[in-house]
Amino acid sequence: MKSQEAMEQFSLPRILGEGIYDSSELPKYRHGGVTPERVTDCFELELPLDKRGTIYIESSDRQSNPGFILVAKPGQRRHTLLPYRCQFIHLSCDGELSKQLASLPDFIMLSEPEIAQRLFGEFILHRAGAIDVTDNTQSTNADADNLLAYSRLFELFWMLVTESGKQSRAGQRSEAIETALRYVDAHLDSELTLDVLAGSCHMSPIYFHRLFKRQMGMTPYRYILAKKLTEAKKRLIMTNQSCLEIALGLGFSSQSYFNYSFRRETGLTPAQFRREHSGTYPDRG
């Protein structure tokens, strides 16, 4: 309910500018230099396009790199050592969206930078009211272009929030635990045991269990079960697989154990969960 109320407080951001910035195209910066320090008056999202230049914001600095997004907030001081090229979106917003953007780190590393570059690019193209990127023809519907632009922008917001969450959690975890988590993701269809998981990062089961619980806040068993049940929910909603197929496909020893685990965590059997989330198409005759 709380998340639903938060969503209802979202309003569309006001776009103040978007495009591709290239300092070498400006006569005064053609041979490099440093931009004057300024105070930002809006949110500035920037995706560098190469590794030239250095971005300074407050007391932090970062060499330009297509592997991160800059999220500058209103009131921050920033300047840039040139040359510098980036895709940019400048915007203002209120309410819940403003709170979420303000809480993000200034630099967010990207696990899939090519997706971010596509979202920036398609947002810019649709805001230009011009290019339908699906078939490369001139768009004739400005409203449709605007809808597509905002859909790309909210995809980008989602990426920023999820990537910053990964960044925060990863900073608190050792490489051994990161290795174990990747192993779980890659072998979710197997019967994962403590011995197997400890072996994936060359640790004794006792020490691994202790380290995992300290860094993750739960036991390996609870983590694995939570991941498997989350995937089970997706398959119950999005596929026609039977409960038995889902149970065996996720490495549960039997359907009865799958049913027991699922009900203990959700209060519903897998079949009840599927019925509750199947949706009913209205029959209007």
CATH architecture assignment name of the largest domain:
Sandwich
How many strand segments?
A: 12
Rounded average pLDDT: 87
The 3D shape can be described as globular
What letter string, H or E per element, gives the SSE order? Answer: HEEEEEEEEEHEHEEHHHHHHHH
Major sheet details: 5 strands, antiparallel
Number of domains: 2
Rg (CA only): 24 Å
CATH topology group of the largest domain:
Jelly Rolls
Terminal Cα span: 34 Å
Helix content: 40-55%
β-strand percent reads: 15-25%
CATH class of the largest domain: Mainly Beta
Look at the structure and name the CATH superfamily of the largest domain.
Regulatory protein AraC
| Structure classification | alpha+beta
Number of helices: 11
Low-confidence stretches: none
* Widest beta sheet: strand line-up: 1-9-4-7-10
| Quaternary structure classification | single chain
Q: Notable features of this structure?
A:
285 residues, 2 domains, globular, alpha+beta, Jelly Rolls
Topology overview:
Blueprint: H1 2-8, E1 14-22, E2 33-34, E3 38-39, E4 43-48, E5 54-57, E6 60-63, E7 68-72, E8 77-82, E9 85-92, H2 95-102, E10 107-109, H3 113-127, E11 131-132, E12 137-138, H4 142-170, H5 175-186, H6 194-200, H7 205-216, H8 220-238, H9 243-249, H10 255-266, H11 270-276
Antiparallel strand pairs: 1-9, 2-8, 3-8, 4-7, 4-9, 5-6, 5-8, 7-10, 11-12
Helix pairs in contact: 3-4, 8-11
